[in-house]
Amino acid sequence: MENTPNSLIEDRFLTEADMRDLSEVDELTVLRNCDLHGLNLSQLEMPNWRFEKCNLAGTSFNGAMLEGAVFEGCRAAGASFVSAVLTEAEIASGDFSNTSFRGATLAAMKIAHCKMTGADFSEARASGMELEDILFVFALLPKMSFHKMTLKQIDFTEADLRSCDFRDVVFEDCLLRDANLSDCRFEHADLRGADLGGVTLTDAKRFKGAVISKHQAGDLLGQLGLLVR
Fold first, then answer.
1. Each residue of 2-42: pLDDT tens digit?
2. Which is nearest to 197 in space by CA: 222, 224, 175, 164?
3. For 50, phi and psi rounded to 5 degrees?
4. What 3 state SS string does 98-118 have?
5. Lowest-pLDDT range, 12-21, 35-44, 159-168, 202-211?
6. 138-147 confidence digits (pLDDT tens)
7. Which residue ranges form the domains of the chain, and what is each CATH number?
8. Beta strand spans in 156-201 (E)
9. What residues does 120 pair with on adjacent strands?
10. Are the C-beta atoms of 110 and 128 separated by less than 8 Å?
11. By CB neighbour count within 10 A (0-12 exposed, 13-18 middle, 19+ buried), where does 163 fall?
């Protein structure tokens, strides 16, 4: 296929051969409103690429090199980023429901205004991430470290958060309703901005060392028939 001087590709149905050819060109590549659904792009090198409003549903990026890549407004339900390198990458808006990031490298990655219902982050290597306004409902996030992060508008409803590190985390307008919080650490976390619905007094020991509001304390003690004045 012919390549534009700045590698800007718009409104195209692309094939795996097209993508391999583009990945071999040492230029910044921008794909805008392109259809890549179902393609196997495993192991390709696509650092600093931009995917804008692309159809990536069911696309495989397994083992791909995507450092600094930007995914803006993409439809990527069921895509796979297993073992991909996404250091300093960014996902801005879009639908990444049921997408797998198993074993991916996510250091310093930014995710905002995104739907990630049922996404799988098991064994992902994440540090220094920035997260805001994300639906992680039913997502798999075991053993993830959120240490010292500020989490804004994150919905963890019924997410698998086993053994996650929430030490020194500030929760702002977040939901932890019915999430699996087994073996999590919350020392010095500020939970006053989190909805803890579904948490029983028996479960409260999991929040040892965290700060909660009087209202939250009242809800827990209310289970014993006690009133907080």
1. 444 468 999 999 999 999 999 998 788 999 999 999 999 99
2. 175
3. -120, 130
4. CCECCCCECCCCEEEEEECCC
5. 202-211
6. 999 999 999 9
7. 1-135 (2.160.20.80)
8. 170-172, 174-175, 194-195
9. 100, 140
10. no
11. middle
